[in-house]
Amino acid sequence: MLSLQAGYDDIRRPLERILEEFPLDLEGRSVLLKPNMVGQYGPETHVNTHPGVIRALVELLRERGASVTVGDNPGTTGYGMVEKCGRVSGIAEGSLGAFESIATEVERVPLPGAGTRVSVSRKVLDSDVFISLPKFKTHTFTRITGAVKNSFGIMVGGDKARLHLEHPGYRAFSEVLVDVYAVRIPDLVIVDAVVGLQGNGPTNKSLYHAGRLLASDNGVSLDAVMSQMMGIKPRSVKMLEVAAGRGLGEIDTSRIETTGDVGRLKGFRRPVPGLPQLFGGTWINTFFPDIGRPRFEVDEAECSLCGSCAEACPGDAIEVGRAGPVYDYSRCIACYCCMELCPRQAIELHETFSTRLYRLLGYR
Ligand code: SF4
Ligand code: SF4
What we know:
Elements: E1 2-5, H1 12-21, E2 30-35, H2 51-63, E3 67-70, H3 81-89, H4 91-94, E4 106-111, E5 116-121, H5 122-126, E6 129-133, E7 135-139, E8 143-144, H6 146-150, H7 159-166, H8 170-183, E9 188-197, E10 207-216, H9 219-229, H10 238-245, H11 275-279, H12 283-287, H13 289-292, E11 296-298, H14 308-312, E12 318-321, E13 324-327, H15 337-341, E14 347-349, H16 353-360
Parallel strand pairs: 2-3, 2-6, 6-9, 7-9
Antiparallel strand pairs: 1-10, 4-5, 7-8, 9-10, 11-14, 12-13
Helix pairs in contact: 8-10
Bound molecules: iron/sulfur cluster (2 copies).
């Protein structure tokens, strides 16, 4: 695993070094770049993979004879967001003509652990080389984003919301994430950690300037090192524990070979987990619904009443009224998709019993 100093104005050099360190057979081959394109966020928000990283990588891959496609399936439902997200995020422009909707052709593939089949972009399955480009971010539910979580976007349309709803528990949803990751394991993962997000992610306004690119040919091990850099024990990230249990990668960071600075990041704010993450299940939501589930605060001045939060909610727990979204918490499964997909970043986590408890334990 490689950790390299990087800035957006000089991103080519570290990317070249990564391609040297993890050589891929590229001449005449098809390559799919899958950024983390969550939604309609501009590059300055650092929610999505920065277009500068994509631009330089497309150039480098083409120089090595590859035929490149850039694509992702943003949001939890619907097919229409792709073009808009590509435009607003700058990813379409940064792709130098390689950006396309990968939602048009799909294949139904089995997820053995979840006992179901889902629609996956055929482009992901058919490309000779698959490069995952996650953003360096926290996540209030899964703790981190990273390579395993980024692969959730290889699915198209409503399957994402359905899986959230059918497997709401921390452990169960982590099994699903690993199922999806294992459908097509990336050949190379490059994390855009030049500027990332800290605190209660995956979308908020709390930027963290790490000034790096992280890379590995094993996404699970890379996620483990990234997690440790954030001050989060890799074993506490359930999807990593599940992935390691299935033999998909080492998460004991003392056994992962690293080059470059992978020390704990100074002053990095970890996400405050909910009670299911603290106590390992969703039973807490069932027996103590008032303290177990998250609560959200909406900045009414920011809310444009666009309805994206309600559209994204797998639990059908949100109605958007004249003053903004109204939550029915009895239907909430604590997936944080509403926060994730609000294009105005108007939704924030409200202080709850568990957030206060975690503050007592040293989280800020
Ligand atoms: S209200 Fe938000 S966190 Fe709860 S289920 Fe809906 S999208 Fe998920
Ligand atoms: S809270 Fe965000 S997603 Fe929901 S309606 Fe307002 S702007 Fe749209």
